[in-house]
Amino acid sequence: MTAVVLRRARILHSILQPTLPSTDFSRNPTP
Question: Out of the domains of life, which is the source (predicted)?
């Protein structure tokens, strides 16, 4: 995974966090 993908993942996670109970991004610690 590239830094861009990680950044997008963090952004999407922050947006989808209140919607989805838990995602793979929340399980894995972000750098």
Answer: Eukaryota
